[in-house]
Amino acid sequence: MRWLDAKPGERILDIGCGDGTYDYRINRQGAQVVGFDIARYKLRTAVKHHARGGTIYLDANAEKMPIRSRSCDAVVSFCVFEHLENDSAVLTEVHRILRDGGRLLLTLDSMSNPEVSNAHRDRLKVEHGVRQFYTVPEISAKMTAGGFRLTRSRYLMGSPLDFKLIRLSYATETMNKVYAALVRTFLVSAGRLVSMIAGRGKTPNTGWTLMVEGIRS
What we know:
This protein has helices at 21-27, 40-50, 87-97, 118-128, 136-145, 160-171, 177-199, and strands at 11-15, 32-36, 55-58, 72-78, 98-109, 148-156, 209-216. The protein folds into two domains: 11-158 and 204-216, Vaccinia Virus protein VP39 (Rossmann fold); 160-201. Helix 6 (160-171) packs antiparallel against helix 7. Helix 3 (87-97) links the parallel strand 4 and strand 5. It is globular and about 45 Å long. The protein is α/β, with parallel strands linked by helices. It has a seven-stranded mixed beta sheet, sandwiched between helices. The mean pLDDT is 87.
């Protein structure tokens, strides 16, 4: 969200908006938001809680969005592209709707952290519908082919400690509900702080997640 730094009056598109939590935060900065998702039950939640004050939601395919060409200032998509059947086609569509110099911001599953096993990657594909993982060179090549220039990138959760914390979060799925709630509270608060301190001053070249920004060229 810090990379986005939405300005009042900007029009921002959110691909795979889910329940609209991020859209609410973007709208509070004065931007107009159009959220897309194909999961109708999530859209119902988004409409119920966040469809107000310049934020609207649409059920549409990201490969063919009902948005005028060159009508958006930025496009965001958080942990969605790894699930797409044709990410290159979506990049082409995003290029169409962005104005010249418009920005594309993505968070992507990378799983390039050396602690991540092939078995775990396969599990994500089977259980969570992940189709592909990304590295900086791979997404840079796709963005260039789609008419974008990669301006910055950053791997997140790239240390062994990060991976241990992530594994702990997965373990809560089989824990006693009370214990699981306590562990999740720790992960949201102290876990993030511990990870930040451990990674201070380091720039990981692999990670669980990859964040990128591109400019429409």
